[in-house]
Amino acid sequence: MASKPKFSEAGILEQYRIALDNVASQSRIAAIMAELGYDAAKIGEGKVMLSETRQAYDLKQSVADEK
């Protein structure tokens, strides 16, 4: 039997947003992430991906609400 997801899709997107905001606002986190290969350019890509994903999620929700 499949287990119920621990977090909602919206909750996961919010966690990603917070993580990306923390990297941008906290230099210590940014330095550690850069050591792992996630420099400012890669974080920027992540922000773009998050924005596009959030827009798709919101569209999906609005279409579902119209039904």
Report what the structure shows:
The chain is 79% helix and 0% strand. It has one domain. It is mainly alpha-helical. The longest helix has 27 residues. The model has no long low-confidence stretch (mean pLDDT 93).
Broad structural category: mainly alpha
Largest sheet: none
Mean of residue pLDDT values: 93
What is the oligomeric state here? single chain
Helical residue percent band? over 70%
Low-confidence stretches: none
Gap from first CA to last CA: 29 Å
Number of strands: 0
Query: What is the domain total for the residues?
Result: 1
What percentage of the residues does DSSP assign to strands (E)?
under 5%
- Cα-atom Rg, whole angstroms? 15 Å
Which H/E pattern describes the elements?
HHH
Counted by DSSP, the helix tally is 3
The coarse silhouette is elongated
